[in-house]
């Protein structure tokens, strides 16, 4: 049987807030998370989307890249930087749709976010048999729009905290 070749897309702000603004708070060990995605979901490449480049966060960017993620920054007008949240939703949606349009070679998509803005994309990918799983950072960060998707298509990262959490 052929091993799947999957891609993962992470909404960085959603992952961060969904783990550090919960009770109890916890942090994801990015190296462990990258290995988990590879082993559990046969993920070859993981795209980690961030709101904007801020040189004061260079250590974070280094950590993300050293763990094996490909960082994608949202383009912003320089006047607006720091005045709005990252809002990478449209970038992730466009990136996935562009890969499908260009018939890029991959089997399925894994999405890490609880944001309801991805609901239409998730429905479309399921319909096209290109969707593996949406991983919600926690139950509170999972939009109610996802209530109708079956359990086979989602999981909560809190369920694997023991495998991917920082000690």
Task: Outline the structure in words.
It is built from six helices and six strands; from the N terminus they run E-H-H-E-H-E-H-E-H-E-E-H. It is of the alpha/beta class and 167 residues long. It has one domain: 3-Layer(aba) Sandwich (Rossmann fold). A six-stranded parallel beta sheet has the order 3-2-1-4-5-6, sandwiched between helices. The chain is globular, with a radius of gyration of 15 Å. The mean pLDDT is 90.
* CATH fold-level topology: Rossmann fold
Overall tally of structural domains: 1
Strand content: 15-25%
**Major sheet, described briefly?**
6 strands, parallel
- Gross morphology is globular
Give the name of the CATH superfamily.
5'-nuclease
Tell me the strand order in the biggest sheet: 3-2-1-4-5-6
Briefly, what CATH class? Alpha Beta
Q: What is the number of helical segments per DSSP (H or I, 4+ residues)?
A: 6
The unreliable regions are none
Helix content: 25-40%
Radius of gyration: 15 Å
Q: How far apart, in Å, are the first and last alpha carbons?
A: 37 Å
In the CATH hierarchy, the architecture is 3-Layer(aba) Sandwich
Mean pLDDT: 90
Q: Give me the strand/helix succession.
A: EHHEHEHEHEEH
Oligomer: single chain
Class from secondary-structure proportions: alpha/beta
**Number of DSSP strand runs:** 6
């Amino acid at each position: 049987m052929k091993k799947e070749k999957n891609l993962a897309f992470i909404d960085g702000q959603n992952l961060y807030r969904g783990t550090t603004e919960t009770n109890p708070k916890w942090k994801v060990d990015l190296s462990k998370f990258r290995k988990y995605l590879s082993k559990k979901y046969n993920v070859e490449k993981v795209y980690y989307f961030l709101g904007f480049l801020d040189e004061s966060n260079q250590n974070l960017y280094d950590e993300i890249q050293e763990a094996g993620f490909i960082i994608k920054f949202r383009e912003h007008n320089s006047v607006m930087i720091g005045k709005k949240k990252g809002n990478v939703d449209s970038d992730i949606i466009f990136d996935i749709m562009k890969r499908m349009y260009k018939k890029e070679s991959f089997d399925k998509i894994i999405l890490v976010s609880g944001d309801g803005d991805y609901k239409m994309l998730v429905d479309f990918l399921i319909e096209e048999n290109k969707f593996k799983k949406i991983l919600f950072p926690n139950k509170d960060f999972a939009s109610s729009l996802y209530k109708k998707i079956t359990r086979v298509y989602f999981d909560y990262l809190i369920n694997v905290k023991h495998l991917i959490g920082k000690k």
